Amino acid sequence: MEEHEMINAQTKLYGVIGNPVRHSLSPIIHNRVFKRMGLNAVYVAFEVNDLRGALKGIRDLGIDGASVTIPFKTRVIPLLDQIEDVAREIQAVNTIKNEGGKLIGYNTDWCGAIEALEEGINLENKRIILLGAGGAAKAIAFGLKNKGCQVFIYNRSLNKSKDLARELGFNSLSSLNGVDPHVIINATSVGMHPHHGESPLPREALRRGMVVMDIVYQPLKTKLLQDAEEQGCRTINGLEMLSRQAAVQIEIWTKKKPEVREIKEDLWQVIKEKESHD
Ligand code: ATR
Q: N or C: which end of the chain has fewer CB within 10 A?
């Protein structure tokens, strides 16, 4: 056995804190990345009830870093020692780094989304319809603001889209008509397993040449992306944002950038396996 494959007294420990987390793909993905990078590190899932206690545990046990997921991304903020500017503005932390007992909070969701979009399109001055006004939508909206996009937010609960739009200086929409967007982004959970057949948009809203991104990754090809493909749009699936936010997270922890392509391949394999069992 190679030395880096052994768990020993030097092994660094990372994990995801959330509730529920037993369905999380993060342990599989992160452990594969650590192994490929030759790091003596493991990553586990912590199903947390007492958040304050969990953070004390991270400090006292010297756990090196954590991913943060639902429902703790906002609640964790007052319990950390330092928050990076963007995460503070978004009011959501998805990454904690333990620097010698000092816990620092970051957000990598927004850069994951922006990097994914920029693979396919130059975002400057583009008109974008953002579907949703929850935590994920807020992180993406923040990234789009940094890129100088013109964003229109559309959400089931109009008061939430109005609030988010006001906060960022964007417009909210009460109907999808009247905007001719270059890009449409689904940041709602509509279409997620087990509601495969649902789309957040009527197919007629999709036109040839548009870029359509979905943050939902189970299934990989959502109804929205299926419709978009059939209408001649360019599509970006949920793996693109997920793999990039994971890569940025690992870089924050280890100061080494993993291969996004390999993370994407791992995720694809794991999700396909899950899909075949569902
Ligand atoms: P996340 O942190 O993953 O963004 P969230 O904050 O709960 O999760 O936000 C979920 C988003 O999906 C919201 O925009 C929500 O719309 P509401 O603000 O009206 O609740 C949207 N959403 C979830 N289920 C939906 C559905 N069936 N139809 C339309 N929008 C839905």
A: N
pTM over 0.70: yes
Closest protein CA for atom 18 of ligand 1 = 157
| Sign of the four-CA dihedral 79, 64, 105, 29 | negative
Q: How far does the centroid of ligand 1 lie from the alpha carbon of residue 200, in Å?
A: 10
Q: Which residues lie below 8 Å from residue 158, measured CB to CB, with a gap of 6+?
A: 172, 174
What separation in angstroms does the CA of 227 have from each of 12, 70, 233?
Answer: 44, 29, 9
> CA–CA separation, 122 vs 106, rounded Å?
25
Point out the ligand 1 atom lying closest to the alpha carbon of residue 70. Answer: 2
pLDDT digits (tens, 9 = 90+) for 95-131: 999 999 999 999 999 999 999 999 989 999 999 999 9
